[in-house]
Design a protein that fits this description.
This protein is 51% helix and 22% strand. The strands form two sheets. Strands 1-4 form a two-stranded antiparallel ribbon. The protein has a two-stranded antiparallel ribbon with strand order 2-3. Keywords: Membrane, Transmembrane, Transmembrane helix.
């Protein structure tokens, strides 16, 4: 069976989202703060070309639990 890159990206996105939700739910637990602490990754391209200008900001938050979610989702994808 040929695997589709779109399905892999969907699995990765869903794993990341599931890990982020679990991290958000576990934030009040101090003992698990090493799993729930997130690091923002930010990218802000911008340009002003006289006739058109743009300013885009993309920010992603990555925690250990969301990384675990991504790893599990790739593992599940490979098991398909």
């Amino acid at each position: 069976m040929k695997k589709n890159i779109g399905i892999l990206l969907l699995f990765i996105l869903l794993g990341w989202l599931a890990g982020a939700w679990i991290a958000k739910a576990l934030e009040p637990v101090q003992a698990l703060s090493f799993l729930t602490a997130s690091t923002p990754i930010k990218w802000s391209p911008q340009a002003n070309l006289d006739i058109i200008s743009y300013d885009i900001t993309i920010q992603m938050k990555l925690s250990l639990l969301s990384l675990i979610g991504i790893i599990v989702s790739v593992w599940l994808y490979r098991r398909l």
